[in-house]
Amino acid sequence: MTTFSNVTVLGAGVLGAQIAFQIANHGVAVNSYDVDDDAIAAARGRLTSLVEQYTGDVGEAHRAAAQTAAGRISFFTDLAAAVADADLVIEAVPENLELKRDIYARLAVAAPPHTVFATNSSTLLPSQIMDSTGRPDRFLALHFANHIWRQNTAEIMGTDQTSPEVFQRVVAFAEDIGMVPIPLHKEQPGYVLNSLLVPFLAAGAGLVLTGVADPETVDKTWRIGTGAPAGPFQIFDVVGLRTAHAISAASDDPGSRMWADYLEANYISQGKLGVESGEGFYKYR
Amino acid sequence: MTTFSNVTVLGAGVLGAQIAFQIANHGVAVNSYDVDDDAIAAARGRLTSLVEQYTGDVGEAHRAAAQTAAGRISFFTDLAAAVADADLVIEAVPENLELKRDIYARLAVAAPPHTVFATNSSTLLPSQIMDSTGRPDRFLALHFANHIWRQNTAEIMGTDQTSPEVFQRVVAFAEDIGMVPIPLHKEQPGYVLNSLLVPFLAAGAGLVLTGVADPETVDKTWRIGTGAPAGPFQIFDVVGLRTAHAISAASDDPGSRMWADYLEANYISQGKLGVESGEGFYKYR
């Protein structure tokens, strides 16, 4: 028995699909909503791939359970129908403030009064969204990381209007579905992980941009000096150079924009996107 | 046969003693210089402890070799005698610019013309010292980390006047004595490791200072998110909270000085100094 019995996930993109699958894989029926039939068809395909990726990762013995889990997900293109019985709605739509505010305004009307809303936004703060929800006391951020099933974190961050009881129930639910809950006491752009990762990666980028050392040397120094399995450029390759580029290009800091240009000129324009493309700072496979 | 046959280490403090021992342990006779007989007596005691620490770390089977290595170290209080035949002088005296410039001015006269000088300074740049050496082409930084013998890094950093051939010989020597050489192409305050570590630790400190999350939560997030064995507060405990305090207190950044005050008030004043005292952010043993 999980803390929330009826859960709806809005948005069936890469992470939305993983969130729905992770919840279903812990025995909960999930409604997955996306905008139209094409999006739902894509989501079904994504779910099939996810079962393959998951069983490839955790072992064939888990295939039947994963298929049963996938079967617990129902797809909807009608928002009102998708959330009619929801105790918890997790929103994982694209990172666009107006889009999110618009969907919360519709949710505010469509969902029952008791429903808790959680945004998976990486870059927006819940306080930027809360007034559009009609229920700021039952609204917070619940932020998942890619490859959810790998004993991964779920960062939980409320606003100053989030009810402490709602916050604790979402922490408990994160634990119910196999996540390691990371409760934040205050709003913090980037949550905990990206608040550490962004300056760390920027420091590595700075050493390469200024010609102090090459990526391999920087990574080796970090691995030996701290015992970590990966230095900043190995992490860049996992994050993906397009994502790193987008974050750096959006920054006000001139050094960050130089780094975006450097990534574009030396890697992205040559199809080197990191692990996903088989080559980034390093070659894979 | 190492790249340099006769090596003198100036300063027989914690790191100076480890450097002398590491070199001697790779078959090279080392002269260890310190200011007076009391300092030399302390250095002999330190060397005895080092042999214990080293054999405790790498195994009793290495005790005889470690004792032989310790026997290859000769102690001097006369600078001219200590460096008369030196091919390489490694300077590991306290981090004080005037003190270092003064010792290099004396070295410039006492050492043979061919002798290469290397500073182990963590915080001063070799360009701040080079004109006092009388031989800027044969002068650079060779920076060791604590617990030298643990397959550790030696960061090598020249000035724009360092001869490339001298630079390469020092890189080769670092490898000769079992270090992983980290060559820097330019001067960089903090070398590679501290250039990554300082902003990373500052980011962790910021999350705790602003009350976003507690140290354990921050560390757990980093460990899970990156697979590293240690988060920022585990690293603070290893570095030592007095060292962390000294670095933060010396900074121009108000956030860093707040962190220094926080460390003093909550940890250092209560004798919690990190791993060395048995307790810091965590308890040990």
Automatic annotation (TrEMBL), chains A, B:
Pfam families: 3HCDH, 3HCDH_N. Keywords: Fatty acid metabolism, Lipid metabolism, NAD, Oxidoreductase. GO terms for molecular function: (3S)-3-hydroxyacyl-CoA dehydrogenase (NAD+) activity; NAD+ binding. Residues 6-186 form the 3-hydroxyacyl-CoA dehydrogenase NAD binding domain. The record marks H143 as: Important for catalytic activity. Residues 190-284 form the 3-hydroxyacyl-CoA dehydrogenase C-terminal domain. Pathway: Lipid metabolism; butanoate metabolism; Lipid metabolism; fatty acid beta-oxidation. It comes from the Bacteria. The keyword Oxidoreductase applies. PANTHER family: HYDROXYACYL-COENZYME A DEHYDROGENASE, MITOCHONDRIAL, PTHR43561. This is 3-hydroxybutyryl-CoA dehydrogenase. It comes from Rhodococcoides trifolii.
